[in-house]
Amino acid sequence: MLTEDLALHTDKYQINMMYAHWHLGTHERKAVFEAYFRKLPFGNGYAVFAGLERIVHYISNLRFTEEDIQYLAEQEENYDLGFLEELRTFQFRGTIHSMKEGALVFPGEPLIRVEARMMEAQLVETAILNFMNFQTLISTKASRIKQIAGQDMLLEFGTRRAQEADAAVWGARAAYIAGFHATSNMLAGKKFGIPTKGTHAHSWVQSFESEQESFDAYAKVLPDQVSLLVDTFDTLESGVPHAIQTGKYLASIGKELAAIRLDSGDLAYLSIEARKMLDEAGLPNVKIVASNDLDENTILNLKAQGARIDTWGVGTQLITAADQPSLGGVYKLVERDVDGEMKPTIKISGNPEKVSTPGKKDVYRIIDRTSGKALADYICFPDEEQPREGGPIKLLNPQHSYLQKTIRNYEAIPMLEPIFVDGIQVYVLPVLEAIRDYHKEQLNLFWPQYLRKMNPEIFRVNISEKVWDLKKSMMAEYMQEEDI
Ligand SMILES: Nc1ncnc2c1ncn2[C@@H]1O[C@H](COP(=O)(O)OP(=O)(O)OP(=O)(O)O)[C@@H](O)[C@H]1O
Ligand SMILES: O=P(O)(O)OC[C@H]1O[C@H](OP(=O)(O)OP(=O)(O)O)[C@H](O)[C@@H]1O
Ligand SMILES: O=C(O)c1cccnc1
User: Fold this and answer.
1) What pTM value is reported for the model?
2) How far apart are CA 84 and CA 378, in angstroms?
3) Whose CA is nearest to atom 5 of ligand 1?
4) N or C: which terminus of the chain has fewer CB atoms within 10 Å of its end residue's CB?
5) Per-residue pLDDT averaged across 109-128, rounded?
6) Quick one: pLDDT at residue 389?
């Protein structure tokens, strides 16, 4: 899955534009695109950036195979053969900057910046958005669940209900980045080194003459980490007593029953009762796992009811981001080569939030030196020195430009890392554990009001005066042109 041929994993309109640029001789012109989203998912206060690892593999392996070229030739008989020849030697030769996976990110700021030949910058839009949008969405959903679960163990159980294999495997990774502890997906475990965990299905119990027999047989043969599903017939009348009997047997041979799993009914009530029964039977170390369409809301509710659940198995709601199944990340042209000079470009819209911000931009996270906490994100042009040199910067809210304040005692952390420079990968992909640690560090930079699940405080993304002046002047230019 890491070295797939994905050159044709793009929308046809990209190929159309590549062809048209090639025909006009503009395909080698430089262009700068930025990927960002406008609205946070799930009413959350932040999103968790993910998808970079897959994007790096995609860009590094981006070649048109002979079959791809053959297919294109069959699709468009009238293609100039020179275009297909161009594709034969195609490689990504541009420069990409990106947020690091695990970073907390916000609306309106560039998450990925692509500087490349028009033809290649256009080709990669679809795949970059596809990877970034899905994985960032799942990491964000997982992070919400993690905020509620606290120190409890979180297991990712979504594969069977995911939107196909890639979503399951990369979704498991996205969940792990945001703090899940393990996945049930063995391929994700193998590919990424994520710890794997599993109990057993109802079918195991059903395939025996009795529940007790099924538990005993399972416990005898499984080498360790025996977890028994106790709701096949009747949780408290049958499942838990039978599990206790198996637990006692395991204790008698020096082993330990690891957990029981509840998968239906009133999980609060059942967990409280099951806990009592296990404790009274001398099995206080046996953990209680719960599953059944859980998400951050049900987990919060169950905790409020005093549920005695140690481990949460979360599938469908997480892997499908059921309450908001897509992140609307977009990829916009911000600068283009006009006769050898890079010029800003803007996309105008009747909806002010949809007007793009022209020019190639950097993103800094501004940290208050006194509290050590993030104050705002700051977007400016690469040639603006102030954040790098610690000079006073004016924080200006683009939606409400009358709201401004000047700050001096800050540290500015550049958020966009160089990933590829002129086609060469310069970024060493971190191991997954380092990404998880980075995510935790990121969370620590924010006051709790930005992190809470419900009605969070809005974290400000500010633009420099220069960026704002350019945007205003370009908007005015286009508005004037439209004047009647
Ligand atoms: N005490 C509780 N408070 C709030 N929600 C709960 C509580 N107990 C269970 N739930 C949730 O309520 C929903 C119950 O779903 P549903 O009615 O489909 O399950 P069920 O009938 O118990 O089991 P089955 O999966 O066998 O149909 C699940 O999302 C579950 O996580
Ligand atoms: O509810 P989710 O959050 O998606 O978690 C995964 C669900 O998948 C399994 O059910 P399923 O009925 O598919 O299989 P089973 O027979 O093993 O219960 C498991 O028992 C969970 O209920
Ligand atoms: O291990 C489990 O209990 C499990 C795995 C996948 C889906 N549901 C449950």
Assistant:
1) 0.97
2) 43
3) 298
4) C
5) 98
6) 87
Report the nearest-CA residue for atom 3 of ligand 1: 302
Is residue 309 in contact with ligand 1, taking CB distance under 6 Å? no
Per the structure, the count of domains in the chain is 2
Decide whether any atom of ligand 3 lies within 6 Å of the 261 Cβ.
yes
Closest C-alpha residue for ligand 3 atom 1: 198
Among 138, 141, 155, 157, residue to substitute to test ligand 2 (most atoms within 8 Å of Cβ): 157
Is the C-beta atom of 329 inside 6 A of ligand 2? Answer: no
What's the CA-to-centroid distance between 265 and ligand 1, angstroms?
5
Q: Is the CB of 292 under 6 A from ligand 2?
A: yes
| Average pLDDT estimate for 361-389 | 95
What six digits make up the tokens of 311?
């481990």
Q: Does a structural domain hold residue 76? A: yes
Residue given tokens 């029964």 in the structure block: 277
Helix or strand or coil: residue 93? coil
Centroid of ligand 2 to alpha carbon of 232 (angstroms): 12
What's the pLDDT tens digit per position in 362-371? 999 999 999 9
Task: Spell out the long-range contacts of 193-200 with Cβ–Cβ below 8 A and sequence spacing 24 or more.
Answer: 193/431, 193/432, 194/432, 197/155, 197/225, 198/227, 199/227, 199/228, 199/229, 199/259, 199/261, 199/289, 199/313, 200/227, 200/228, 200/229
Does residue 364 share a domain with residue 268?
no
What is the tens place of the pLDDT at every residue in 31-64?
999 999 999 999 999 999 999 999 999 999 999 9
What are residue 45's phi and psi, to 5 degrees? -90, -10
Q: Of 320, 350, 381, which marks where a domain is finished?
A: 320
- Say if residue 81 is exposed, middle or buried (CB neighbours under 10 Å; 0-12, 13-18, 19+): exposed
Q: How high is the pLDDT of residue 1?
A: 47
- Which residue range forms the structural domain that includes residue 153? 149-320
pLDDT of residue 300 exceeding 80, the answer is yes
Asked if 366 and 408 sit in the same domain, the reply is: yes
Q: Tell whether 123 and 222 lie within a shared domain.
A: no
User: Is residue 345 over pLDDT 50?
Assistant: yes
Residue 390 Cβ inside 6 Å of ligand 3? The answer reads: no
Which two tokens mark 127? 């795949």
CA of 202 to the centre of ligand 2 (A): 9
483 has a pLDDT exceeding 60: no
Q: Are 209 and 308 contained in the same domain?
A: yes
Residue 130 near ligand 3, beta carbon < 6 Å: no
Same domain, yes or no: 308 and 178: yes
CA 156 to ligand 2 centroid distance, Å: 11
- Residue 7: closest CA among 93, 66, 52, 53: 66
Q: How large a percentage of the chain has pLDDT more than 70?
A: 97
In this prediction, residues 205-221 reach a mean pLDDT of 97
User: What is the ipTM for the molecules in this complex?
Assistant: 0.96
Confirm whether 1 is domain-assigned: no
Note whether 436 and 402 are same-domain residues.
yes
